[in-house]
Structure prediction request, 545 residues.
Amino acid sequence: MYKNLFLILICLIITFFMACKAVQVKDIHTENEEQGENKTGELVMAMSPAKIDFDPLHAYTSSEAQFYSAVYEGLVAYHPVTLAPIPALAINWEISEDGLIYTFYLREYAVFSNGDTVTAEDVRNSWIRFMEPGTTAEYSVFFDIIKGAKDYRASETGDAADIGIRALSDTKLEVELEKPASHFLKLLCHMSFIPLHKTYAGREGWGKDKSIISNGPYFLFDRDDNEMILRKNNLHWFSEHVEIDTVRVLFMDDKTEISDMFNNYRIHWALNWESELLDDTSLLVLNPMFATSYLFFVSRQPPWNDPRVRRGLARLLPWNELRSEDVYFTTDTLVPKITDYPEVKGLKEKNSDEGLSLLEEAGFPGGAGLPPLTIKIPDDEGSIEIAGILAETWKEECGLEVKIKVVPRSIYFDELYKEDYTIGTTTWIGDFADPIAFLQMWTSGSNLNEARYTNPAYDALIEDSYKEKGTSRYEILAKAEELLLYEAVVLPLRNYPALNLVNSNLIEGWYPNPLDIHPFHFINFKEDKIYPGIVLGNGTATDNG
Prediction:
């Protein structure tokens, strides 16, 4: 009996893998065209126009992180509620006793959207690409935890074979760390760690193509300045559980039109709207994020590289006005609240006497001799108001000449890499729930260090934190944060909230979370719900009246 069952099982397994192989050779784009566009299964999202680059080398924004969770898949992925790392491209993994070696086992039936198998070598090559000397990848610092990565990045003629990433077979990847890192699996959820198809090796500029080859539950079908269309990837291992066939992203700035379309069920999820025009404001979802909005000094050139100058100017500011009670979740620290993380002291109050004393100590009595200061901000009302407060205060307190440069938000993040300003502003969303997500970026060799801040003492604290675990590690990181805040490199304003407009009457599987990332493949339409304007299977629409 057991022998017969065994033979039956073997036959079933062989049949299964033959079927998988047959599916792999069929182009996913062709398969979707044959199925036709299923309007009943189309999720519509509206957001402001944004730079979406599908080359992870240049991806930087939270909007890109949202779409990467659909189009790409790394070894692990975010749980849609807890954001804990869950199996994705890697079906499982092992960790050595000393915490230095991670062995990942890839799914044998994982393929790209064109049917090619995703291999451990694809993962390795994609990661090495981030570390290549001279590469200006924003998140390359995230790879420094891997053995040999930091040295390779800093070299001119390094050997990639020395990096601790080894493809032992098509489905087995070994990663050796420089030091134990308890947050490593969380880090791998980040969009920088996805595998790329061989097609893109050595190519530039492809991240803005209208369609690409990828390995996620959806693929980029088409896009232009007005919209982006994602289609279900029927070759993906999770595809039978993905219920929505098409995601249509509308790039719109007209809040009145968005609100009207949402009220009429033509948009299911929106990131901008007019609250007064909404029929049902209970569909607004507000939750705190693992994110902080802050000002920062570009501190490479004198006199802004002198902490006395930065702190002196910071002490002159009216912090109670900048952190108005009308704003959600104001803060004077950089790292959002984390269990067991020590209390950190930041700048809370104005102190003109201390501020002027520090400027005098730095050689600028009463502010005399300070060069003009330029504040670069995006074109939104809140940023313009804050820049105005800074300019007016410094003119009154120390006669400082301040210029305000307003930049369209769609290109603002690219503008931050230019050194034609003194103070910028941004909102940083931690890529994983650990203080290092907010603190490693300010180290000397980090491409995320927009402040161009360099302090060996700070670098040493971050390095020392890797030698510790638990509360001891947190205590060292808290000292690093206090140093950063004391030297006024970063001036926190608030822990940024996530605010979304989601038609939870119609869709489910959309969950609020601290990173504001909501994987499309977990979202579906509720059963037995027919709303005005929804296109039915027979091509007719329900009455809007």
Notes: The first strand starts at residue 42 and ends at 47.
